[in-house]
Amino acid sequence: METENADVLVTGSAVRVGRAIALRLADEGANIAVHYRTSDEEARETAGEVRERGGEAATVRADLSTVKGARNAVDATVEALGGIDVLVNSASVFYETPVGEVTREDWDHSMNVNLRAPFFATQRAASHGVEKVVNIAGVAAERPYPSYLPYSISKAGVVSLTKGSAKALAPEVTVNAVAPGTVLSPEDRDEEEERRIAEKTPVGRIGEPSDVADTVAFVVRSSDFLNGAVINVDGGRSL
Protein backbone atom coordinates (compact mmCIF):
# COMPACT_ATOMS: atom_id res chain seq x y z
CA MET A 1 0.00 0.00 0.00
CA GLU A 2 1.02 3.62 -0.34
CA THR A 3 2.44 4.97 2.90
CA GLU A 4 1.90 8.56 1.79
CA ASN A 5 -1.09 10.01 3.69
CA ALA A 6 -1.85 6.68 5.40
CA ASP A 7 -3.38 7.06 8.86
CA VAL A 8 -1.34 4.95 11.27
CA LEU A 9 -1.65 4.06 14.94
CA VAL A 10 1.62 2.97 16.53
CA THR A 11 1.06 1.78 20.07
CA GLY A 12 3.77 2.58 22.57
CA SER A 13 5.27 5.16 20.24
CA ALA A 14 6.26 7.89 22.67
CA VAL A 15 9.65 6.30 23.34
CA ARG A 16 12.18 3.69 22.26
CA VAL A 17 11.38 1.32 19.39
CA GLY A 18 7.80 2.51 18.98
CA ARG A 19 9.01 6.07 18.57
CA ALA A 20 11.50 5.00 15.91
CA ILE A 21 8.71 3.23 14.03
CA ALA A 22 6.45 6.28 14.18
CA LEU A 23 9.15 8.61 12.89
CA ARG A 24 10.23 6.21 10.14
CA LEU A 25 6.66 5.97 8.83
CA ALA A 26 6.33 9.74 9.10
CA ASP A 27 9.40 10.04 6.87
CA GLU A 28 7.41 8.11 4.27
CA GLY A 29 4.49 10.50 4.48
CA ALA A 30 2.21 8.79 7.00
CA ASN A 31 0.00 10.53 9.54
CA ILE A 32 0.68 9.15 13.00
CA ALA A 33 -1.35 8.60 16.16
CA VAL A 34 1.26 8.51 18.90
CA HIS A 35 -0.04 6.23 21.63
CA TYR A 36 1.21 6.39 25.22
CA ARG A 37 0.07 5.52 28.72
CA THR A 38 2.20 7.67 31.04
CA SER A 39 4.86 9.29 28.83
CA ASP A 40 2.85 12.43 28.10
CA GLU A 41 5.75 14.79 27.46
CA GLU A 42 7.60 12.29 25.28
CA ALA A 43 4.43 11.62 23.26
CA ARG A 44 4.00 15.34 22.57
CA GLU A 45 7.64 15.56 21.49
CA THR A 46 7.26 12.60 19.13
CA ALA A 47 4.08 14.09 17.65
CA GLY A 48 5.93 17.36 17.14
CA GLU A 49 8.68 15.56 15.23
CA VAL A 50 6.08 13.86 13.04
CA ARG A 51 4.67 17.27 12.14
CA GLU A 52 8.16 18.61 11.41
CA ARG A 53 8.51 15.77 8.90
CA GLY A 54 5.33 16.84 7.14
CA GLY A 55 2.72 14.50 8.57
CA GLU A 56 -0.34 15.01 10.69
CA ALA A 57 -0.01 13.80 14.26
CA ALA A 58 -2.14 13.22 17.32
CA THR A 59 -1.39 11.88 20.77
CA VAL A 60 -3.57 9.09 22.10
CA ARG A 61 -3.54 8.12 25.76
CA ALA A 62 -4.83 4.64 26.64
CA ASP A 63 -4.09 1.89 29.16
CA LEU A 64 -3.51 -1.23 27.07
CA SER A 65 -3.66 -3.49 30.11
CA THR A 66 -7.44 -3.28 29.74
CA VAL A 67 -9.65 -4.34 26.84
CA LYS A 68 -11.37 -0.96 26.95
CA GLY A 69 -8.03 0.79 26.62
CA ALA A 70 -7.02 -1.24 23.58
CA ARG A 71 -10.29 -0.42 21.86
CA ASN A 72 -10.15 3.23 22.91
CA ALA A 73 -6.70 3.68 21.37
CA VAL A 74 -8.14 2.72 17.98
CA ASP A 75 -11.31 4.77 18.37
CA ALA A 76 -9.30 7.84 19.39
CA THR A 77 -7.09 7.42 16.33
CA VAL A 78 -10.09 7.33 14.02
CA GLU A 79 -11.52 10.42 15.69
CA ALA A 80 -8.25 12.34 15.52
CA LEU A 81 -7.00 11.35 12.06
CA GLY A 82 -10.28 10.55 10.35
CA GLY A 83 -9.57 6.86 9.90
CA ILE A 84 -7.06 4.07 10.42
CA ASP A 85 -5.24 2.41 7.53
CA VAL A 86 -2.42 0.76 9.46
CA LEU A 87 -2.14 -0.55 13.01
CA VAL A 88 1.30 -1.26 14.47
CA ASN A 89 1.02 -3.17 17.75
CA SER A 90 4.33 -2.11 19.23
CA ALA A 91 3.61 -1.49 22.92
CA SER A 92 5.12 -4.13 25.16
CA VAL A 93 6.30 -4.76 28.71
CA PHE A 94 9.64 -6.50 29.25
CA TYR A 95 11.25 -7.06 32.62
CA GLU A 96 13.11 -9.87 34.33
CA THR A 97 10.87 -12.49 35.96
CA PRO A 98 12.87 -15.47 37.32
CA VAL A 99 10.57 -18.48 37.09
CA GLY A 100 10.45 -19.08 40.84
CA GLU A 101 9.48 -15.47 41.50
CA VAL A 102 6.76 -14.97 38.88
CA THR A 103 3.54 -13.69 40.44
CA ARG A 104 0.05 -13.72 39.06
CA GLU A 105 0.38 -9.97 38.58
CA ASP A 106 3.56 -10.46 36.51
CA TRP A 107 1.83 -13.07 34.37
CA ASP A 108 -1.33 -11.05 33.84
CA HIS A 109 0.56 -7.85 33.07
CA SER A 110 2.63 -9.48 30.32
CA MET A 111 -0.33 -11.28 28.79
CA ASN A 112 -2.67 -8.32 28.96
CA VAL A 113 -0.33 -5.74 27.40
CA ASN A 114 1.72 -7.94 25.07
CA LEU A 115 -0.98 -10.27 23.76
CA ARG A 116 -4.54 -9.37 24.72
CA ALA A 117 -4.19 -5.71 23.71
CA PRO A 118 -2.97 -6.48 20.17
CA PHE A 119 -5.91 -8.86 19.71
CA PHE A 120 -8.59 -6.39 20.76
CA ALA A 121 -6.90 -3.46 19.02
CA THR A 122 -6.80 -5.50 15.82
CA GLN A 123 -10.43 -6.53 16.24
CA ARG A 124 -11.45 -2.89 16.67
CA ALA A 125 -9.27 -1.64 13.83
CA ALA A 126 -10.75 -4.22 11.47
CA SER A 127 -14.21 -2.84 12.23
CA HIS A 128 -12.92 0.61 11.19
CA GLY A 129 -11.55 -0.60 7.86
CA VAL A 130 -7.85 -1.04 8.65
CA GLU A 131 -5.85 -2.47 5.73
CA LYS A 132 -2.64 -3.61 7.40
CA VAL A 133 -1.67 -4.77 10.85
CA VAL A 134 1.94 -5.19 11.90
CA ASN A 135 2.61 -6.90 15.22
CA ILE A 136 5.90 -6.63 17.06
CA ALA A 137 6.68 -10.14 18.23
CA GLY A 138 10.18 -11.25 19.27
CA VAL A 139 12.66 -14.02 18.68
CA ALA A 140 11.95 -15.11 22.27
CA ALA A 141 8.74 -16.61 20.88
CA GLU A 142 10.81 -19.47 19.45
CA ARG A 143 13.84 -19.25 21.75
CA PRO A 144 12.38 -18.36 25.16
CA TYR A 145 14.45 -16.37 27.62
CA PRO A 146 14.54 -18.44 30.84
CA SER A 147 14.38 -15.41 33.13
CA TYR A 148 11.65 -13.75 31.07
CA LEU A 149 9.12 -16.53 30.61
CA PRO A 150 5.88 -14.49 30.81
CA TYR A 151 7.30 -12.14 28.18
CA SER A 152 8.52 -15.00 25.98
CA ILE A 153 5.21 -16.86 26.17
CA SER A 154 3.24 -13.71 25.40
CA LYS A 155 5.36 -13.16 22.29
CA ALA A 156 4.75 -16.75 21.20
CA GLY A 157 1.08 -15.86 21.46
CA VAL A 158 1.66 -12.81 19.25
CA VAL A 159 3.09 -15.10 16.56
CA SER A 160 -0.01 -17.30 16.76
CA LEU A 161 -2.24 -14.23 16.78
CA THR A 162 -0.50 -12.96 13.65
CA LYS A 163 -0.96 -16.17 11.72
CA GLY A 164 -4.53 -16.73 12.87
CA SER A 165 -5.59 -13.16 12.19
CA ALA A 166 -3.94 -13.27 8.77
CA LYS A 167 -6.32 -16.06 7.82
CA ALA A 168 -9.36 -14.79 9.69
CA LEU A 169 -9.25 -11.21 8.35
CA ALA A 170 -8.14 -11.84 4.76
CA PRO A 171 -8.59 -10.60 2.13
CA GLU A 172 -9.63 -7.23 3.53
CA VAL A 173 -6.77 -7.04 6.06
CA THR A 174 -3.23 -8.37 5.98
CA VAL A 175 -1.48 -9.19 9.24
CA ASN A 176 2.26 -9.71 9.62
CA ALA A 177 4.81 -9.58 12.41
CA VAL A 178 8.31 -8.27 12.90
CA ALA A 179 10.32 -10.20 15.50
CA PRO A 180 13.28 -8.25 16.89
CA GLY A 181 16.25 -9.84 18.57
CA THR A 182 18.48 -7.88 20.94
CA VAL A 183 17.67 -4.22 20.38
CA LEU A 184 18.51 -1.39 22.80
CA SER A 185 20.74 -2.68 25.57
CA PRO A 186 19.54 -2.30 29.18
CA GLU A 187 21.38 0.33 31.20
CA ASP A 188 22.71 -2.31 33.61
CA ARG A 189 24.31 -4.49 30.90
CA ASP A 190 28.11 -4.31 31.14
CA GLU A 191 30.52 -3.98 28.23
CA GLU A 192 31.61 -7.62 28.42
CA GLU A 193 28.03 -8.82 28.01
CA GLU A 194 27.57 -6.41 25.12
CA ARG A 195 30.66 -7.81 23.43
CA ARG A 196 29.52 -11.40 23.99
CA ILE A 197 26.11 -10.77 22.42
CA ALA A 198 27.64 -8.96 19.46
CA GLU A 199 30.10 -11.82 18.86
CA LYS A 200 27.25 -14.34 18.79
CA THR A 201 25.39 -12.28 16.19
CA PRO A 202 26.45 -13.04 12.61
CA VAL A 203 26.37 -9.38 11.56
CA GLY A 204 28.61 -8.53 14.54
CA ARG A 205 26.51 -6.01 16.41
CA ILE A 206 23.48 -5.46 18.62
CA GLY A 207 20.38 -4.11 16.92
CA GLU A 208 19.11 -0.54 16.86
CA PRO A 209 15.51 0.72 16.92
CA SER A 210 16.03 1.86 13.32
CA ASP A 211 16.54 -1.77 12.26
CA VAL A 212 13.06 -2.63 13.49
CA ALA A 213 11.54 0.59 12.15
CA ASP A 214 12.95 0.03 8.66
CA THR A 215 11.48 -3.47 8.58
CA VAL A 216 8.06 -2.28 9.72
CA ALA A 217 8.11 0.35 6.98
CA PHE A 218 8.96 -2.36 4.45
CA VAL A 219 6.01 -4.47 5.59
CA VAL A 220 3.62 -1.51 5.43
CA ARG A 221 4.51 -0.64 1.86
CA SER A 222 4.78 -4.26 0.70
CA SER A 223 2.35 -6.15 -1.51
CA ASP A 224 -0.81 -7.51 0.07
CA PHE A 225 0.52 -10.93 -0.92
CA LEU A 226 2.71 -10.69 2.18
CA ASN A 227 0.33 -12.06 4.80
CA GLY A 228 0.92 -14.12 7.92
CA ALA A 229 4.69 -13.64 7.77
CA VAL A 230 6.95 -13.36 10.80
CA ILE A 231 10.19 -11.58 9.91
CA ASN A 232 13.12 -11.98 12.31
CA VAL A 233 15.24 -8.85 12.73
CA ASP A 234 18.08 -10.21 14.82
CA GLY A 235 21.20 -10.03 12.68
CA GLY A 236 20.94 -13.76 12.06
CA ARG A 237 21.45 -14.73 15.69
CA SER A 238 18.50 -17.13 15.72
CA LEU A 239 19.90 -19.14 12.80
What attributes does this structure have?
globular, Rossmann fold, 7 helices, 7 strands, 15% strand, 7-stranded parallel β-sheet, 239 residues
Describe the structure.
This protein is of the alpha/beta class. The protein has a single domain (7-233), classed as 3-Layer(aba) Sandwich (Rossmann fold), CATH 3.40.50. 45% of the residues lie in helices and 15% in strands. The chain has seven helices and seven strands. It has helices at residues 16-27, 40-52, 67-81, 104-127, 149-169, 191-199, 209-221, and strands at residues 7-10, 31-36, 57-61, 86-89, 132-136, 174-180, 230-233. A seven-stranded parallel sheet has the order 3-2-1-4-5-6-7, sandwiched between helices. Strand 4, helix 4 and strand 5 form a beta-alpha-beta unit. Helix 1 packs across helix 7 (209-221) and helix 4 packs parallel to helix 5 (149-169). The longest helix has 24 residues, at 104-127. It is globular and about 45 Å long. The chain starts with 6 loop residues before the first strand and ends in a 6-residue tail after the last strand. 45% of the residues are buried. The mean pLDDT is 95.
User: How big a fraction of the residues is strand?
Assistant: 5-15%
Distance between the termini: 30 Å
Neighbour order of strands in the largest sheet: 3-2-1-4-5-6-7
Low-confidence stretches: none
What integer value in Å does the Rg equal?
Answer: 17 Å
Please name the CATH topology.
Answer: Rossmann fold
Structural class category? alpha/beta
Relevant CATH superfamily: NAD(P)-binding Rossmann-like Domain
Major sheet summary line: 7 strands, parallel
**Inertia-based shape:** globular
Q: How many structural domains does the protein architecture include?
A: 1
Sequence of secondary-structure elements: EHEHEHEHEHEHHE
Specify the helix fraction band. Answer: 40-55%
CATH class: Alpha Beta
CATH-defined architecture = 3-Layer(aba) Sandwich
